[in-house]
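To fix ideas, we quote verbatim a fold written out as tokens:
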Amino acid sequence: MGNGIRIPFSFLLILVLFFHSTPQISATGYPINVWPKPTTFSWPEPRITLLSPNFTIFSPSNPYLNQVAKRYRNQFINEHYHPLVDPPVNLTGLPPLRSLDIKLIYGNPPRLACELYIHDEPLFPYRGVMLDTSRNFYGVTDLLRLIKAMSMYKLNVLHWHITDSHSFPLVLPSEPELAKKGAYGEEMMYTPEDITKVVEFGMEHGVRIMPEIDRPGHTASWAEAYPDIVTCTNMFWWPAGADLFNRLAHEPATGQLNPLTMNTYKVVKNVIKDVVSMFPDSFYHGGADEITPNCWKSNKTIQYFLAKNGTLSQLLEMFVNSTLPYIINQNRTVVYWEDVLLDPNVSVAASVLPQKNVILQTWNNGPNNTKKLVEAGYRVIVSSAEFYYLDCGHRGWAGNDSQYNQPPGTNLGNGSSWCAPFKTWQTIYNYDITYGLHIEEAKLVLGGEVVLWSEQADPAVMDPRIWPRASAMAETLWSGNRDSTGMKRYAEATDRLNEWRNRMVTRGIGAEPIQPLWCIRNPGMCNTIQPFKLS
């Protein structure tokens, strides 16, 4: 091997494999900050050695693993990252080590942690980020940058909310008119070639791409191509004099697929077929959230159905029964938002949603809804808005909103941000997604997902809206948020997150700061409680 170092490749496999066990967590402090903290991290005598310029990673013959090995090798040799605070470790005269499980590398010339032992595997197999690209468009380069950042934190699922009422940017071979008429413009579409690029980049970085085509609600954009299959199109979303319950949509624009129109299912099945062919992931997100009763009630055909003692829930059941088996037959597990089962006005019975084939994603009422879903026997992805919604706290976005026209000193409440306040990284870090669950119930929780809806976000603000807050969730889902004594470790996490936020910035990710640099260089002095010092 000459001057090279042979590295076992098992630590890189962590990026692309799922694990299901729950290991014991060790969380003692060490002079080089790591994020997410490994499940077991032992460095009895912190020392470093220089990294050979002939450093080599040997891996099994696999095109994706080979790409990962090449990328990490180049990063180790060329990054020359300088920590915000120099770590107090000694440089040894030992030759480069050859049999470590993982390497912590920094500096110029590159320095390598030695006599370091790590056992690492995630607490939860599903660790995701959702991005909405319908309300505002994100280019392929933005998606690749997001995937790159996710891989730094072992986040392994990009939930791509591609379409919604506002635009339909996905070009589908079987239904080209949907994007041609439903996208914001030719330059704001995702072609099949774009999808391949994103999926392949995800594979190379250990990130799955789960597509979501939301329906039967949130489908106003479909009406540009198929007005015959969409109800309440081109109507003002909140009619004069209507209360909250009697709106035509939860937000502009209006439109829901009509379950009583046969052409609806022809178009929907073409969409499903094309999306499945583009995205190889085993999960397919079918949406099914926020059915607005009055949108369906405005349609004459549906009015006749209701007059014959039909119900809105029966309409949704009709839609699910006509589409869910088709998705399952494409060898996909279907993910729905929790509304399909829990909405108090329009929902279906559990018998319509086989637990074997369906996963439910919760976003309301925190641990309470998680509990309801696992008690019903469903696997669950947790995206509780109270903790994981990254768009919250930026005030309302509706025009001519008179509630802002108030005298000075008026309490504006949540400022039209329904899920205010802003979710700080500490709020996210301290959330236990299995809170209140018994051991067997907790096993049904696959993991969690932070969410960025894009009413007030686009590529200009994507990085700081997501990072480093998503990093907080990444660690809690990987190794937990408690130390070996069972205490929450958010205080200890601050210095490590500061360091890794800085590392993100050096890699081209525009993560927002969490503290002034002064705090980082004066450890403990920015705490709310003065640190204890020995005399």
The chain has a mean pLDDT of 89.
